[in-house]
Write a structure and sequence with these properties.
Helix content: 25-40%
CATH class: Alpha Beta
Shape: elongated
Largest sheet: 5 strands, mixed
Order of helices and strands: EEHHEEEH
Structural class: alpha+beta
Radius of gyration: 17 Å
Number of strands: 5
Length: 95
């Protein structure tokens, strides 16, 4: 008999708080199903899956992606500032 469940982690980070939750899923469950099963959306109601980017170990993927055992699903927050613009601003201040 083969095990039809896998363990994955769901991660979300804010500047002052980082959370990684373990969840058991069916082997054919999607990233979206893992996020819902983890309960992270109730803990952080500001997460909007329709807008949020997600990935596995820093590599972007879609909500319909099927994760493998022991992978970490990451939910990314939107950038507050454009990184290139921030570098230009710091460079201008140092002159």
């Amino acid at each position: 008999m083969t095990d039809t469940r896998i363990k994955v982690e769901v991660a979300y980070a804010k500047p002052a708080e980082q959370v990684i939750l373990s969840v058991m899923l069916e082997t054919d469950a999607t990233v979206e199903a893992a996020i819902h099963a983890s309960g992270i959306l109730q803990r952080f109601p500001e997460i909007d899956l329709a807008q949020a980017k997600v990935g596995i170990f820093s590599k972007p993927c879609g909500l319909d992606h099927v994760p493998r055992p022991n992978e970490r699903i990451e939910i990314y927050r939107p950038l507050i500032a454009d990184p290139k613009e921030a570098r230009r601003h710091r460079a201008a201040k140092s002159v």
